Amino acid sequence: MKGPSTMTERDVRERDILVASNEYAYVQDLTKGDIVLYVGPTKISLSNTERLVDYKNDRFVPVRSDEGVGVCPFVLASSGQYILLENPPKDPGLRPQKGNNASVELLTGRKVVVPGPASFPLWPGQRAKVVNGHALREDEFLIVRVYDKAEGVDHPIGTELLVEGASVSFYIPRTGLEVVPTERGYVRKAWRLRRSTGLHLRVVKPFAAKEGGIVPAGSYAAGQELLVRDREGFFFPTEHLEVIGIVHAIPLGEREGIYVRHLETGRINTIVGPINYLPDPTQTEIVSRPLDPERSALYGVVGRDPARAIAVQIPAGFAVLVTGKKSRQVVTGPETRILSFDEDLEVLRLSTGKPKSDEALLSTCFLQVEGNKVSDVVELRTADHVALRVALSYRVSFVRKNGEAERWFNVRNYVDLLCDHLGSLLRAAARANPIDAIHQNGTEILRAAILGEKKSDGPRAGRSFEENGMWVHDVELLDLRILDPEVEKLLGDAQKKAIGAEVARRDQMLRLGAERLREEVDREILSARIETLGRSAEAEQATRKLRLAEAESRTEADRADRVGKAKNEAEAQGVLKSAELEVLERRATLDREALEAKVSAFKEQMGALAPELVATLKVLGNQQLAGELMKHASPLAILGGSSVAEVVERLLAGLPIGTLGAGGIGAVLKKNGEARPSP
């Protein structure tokens, strides 16, 4: 009797398997090994000598139907897709039928392309892959490899062809061609060409380029490399060219540089910014110049980018000596100097300590040419053998001679030269003077020994060094100490007494100054008062002058106003009088004309009268006139003592009426008789 597990296997094996439409399954005969294809819709009833299998990893493996596997859907490709079918049937027109289908002969190792739409099961031993059609933009392309004879393709197997999106927007290969995939899919991006980038290419097949293309015109051999630069657009690789990579421009700032080696000559050049440098990998390569930590610290470039050239920052007041194989150049700051590949900086080794010694030398590449300060301690001995210790500070500058500055670096340890030479001068000056002179006027003595005597018309000459152009232009005495305690005590006591006397003298001078100041203040106050009074008088006088000027101004203004008014009135009166005179003249003219008219009329009238009437009128007139004369001439006759007739005659002697003719005024008077007027 069999166990429970055996019964379970038999039950499962005898279970019916349903295969729906558009599905298929493989069943293997365990006695023969044949594989039968079942195409749905159908039902599979497995016998004890059959089992359900699946094709995996190039072999058939059994599966259990209760696990939901073993039944596969048809291979389905819609429009816009295609199927890569491996091991197609030898008879291309053979199609599986519904139900069971015996195995057919396959073309093992062959591969065909079935464009969609398509749907079919796979014969046992076939593999299929559904691939989406390849949509291409203008900057995209495909690489298609020839794996078998293809219709319309004469290239040998293994040839790779280029399908550009600029010419084909959608691509499905035909049998014999396959699209070479990448890690990201099938579609590849064309290389974008820019002015700031280059494309490094390798020739894989000889060809000749024509004018106007991406590649410069010329003939190219296989294995040759070239750089495409200064172009805009897209580059699509061809069967003649392959892309090695994109070369990016290296942006260099104003104080940056790189080293470039020419591959043919081996010469290394320095490219200095500002520039957007695009290296040509076919002719040049970027090289770096390593520096050991000590040199990096001396150059002041710790932490620099090793891909960049060495850029030395030179501060203001400093200088460096740049040395090459055949050159020497002094560079003064502020400046940034980019060193060539074979250039270095001269290193100075300077003495340190006080007094200066060579036990611990200071290494530096930067020479302070302005504002340099060197301190030292020197032991001296005076003429009377008193030992001294002097601390000094030298002010040092470096000057050019004939415009040349290279001699500044002729002496690598200028501190040692400076301190040794100036120390000998100080010792000589101390030996020539006693201690009291040094104690009282040590600063002047020591400064004169180094800088020269003080001039009345300018500063001291200073001390120059022909060896390296060094010039000491000032010395500061920081400390002067007597090494013998007894001598120092004696000088100290004497100095205290001198200080006491000086303090007393200054006190008296202060008192004198205070008194002088007090008297000076009183004089100044009195002078100020006098000046105030004088200014008050001047102000009062100025006020009076101002008032007088104001009065005169008002008077002059009033006079001018009156004169103006009078002139205006006179002019007005003149105009009025002129008008009146003109009126009177016109009236007189009119009156004269009227009178002349009347006279003329009267003459005409009188002419018409008889002469007798005229004589009668004259007599009557003379009589009337005589009467009037007699009446008015009587007082004259009385005063003159003559008759009235004589007076009248004298009065009228020059007149026609004064005649004594018969009708005249005289006759009338005679006729009337003379009479003497009574008093």
Protein model, in words:
The protein contains 8 helices and 43 strands. With 679 residues, it is of the alpha+beta class. It folds into 6 domains: 4-131, no CATH class; 135-248, SH3 type barrels, CATH 2.30.30; 250-345, no CATH class; 348-483, Tetrahydropterin Synthase, Chain A (2-Layer Sandwich); 484-550; 614-672, no CATH class. The strands form 15 sheets. Strands 2, 3, 5, 6, 7 and 10 form a 6-stranded antiparallel beta sheet that branches. Strand 22 (207-209) and strand 23 form a beta hairpin. Helix 3 crosses helix 4, helix 6 packs across helix 7 and helix 6 (611-640) crosses helix 8 (665-672).
For the structure shown, list the relevant keywords.
six-stranded antiparallel beta sheet; flat; alpha+beta; SH3 type barrels; 679 residues; four-stranded antiparallel beta sheet; 6 domains
Could you give a short description of this structure?
33% of the residues lie in helices and 30% in strands.
Give a topology summary.
Blueprint: H1 4-13, E1 16-19, E2 23-29, E3 35-39, E4 42-45, E5 50-56, E6 59-62, E7 71-73, E8 75-77, E9 81-86, E10 99-101, E11 111-115, E12 118-120, E13 127-132, E14 134-135, E15 140-146, E16 160-164, E17 170-171, E18 177-179, E19 188-189, E20 191-193, E21 197-203, E22 207-209, E23 218-220, E24 225-228, E25 233-235, E26 241-248, E27 250-252, E28 257-262, E29 268-272, E30 275-277, E31 284-287, H2 293-299, E32 311-314, E33 318-323, E34 328-332, E35 335-338, E36 344-345, E37 348-352, E38 357-364, E39 367-368, E40 372-381, E41 387-398, H3 414-431, H4 435-451, E42 463-465, E43 470-482, H5 485-608, H6 611-640, H7 644-651, H8 665-672
Antiparallel strand pairs: 1-4, 2-3, 2-5, 2-7, 3-10, 5-6, 8-12, 9-11, 9-13, 14-17, 15-16, 15-18, 15-19, 20-25, 21-24, 21-26, 22-23, 27-30, 28-29, 28-31, 32-35, 33-34, 33-36, 33-39, 37-38, 40-41, 41-43, 42-43
Helix pairs in contact: 3-4, 6-7, 6-8
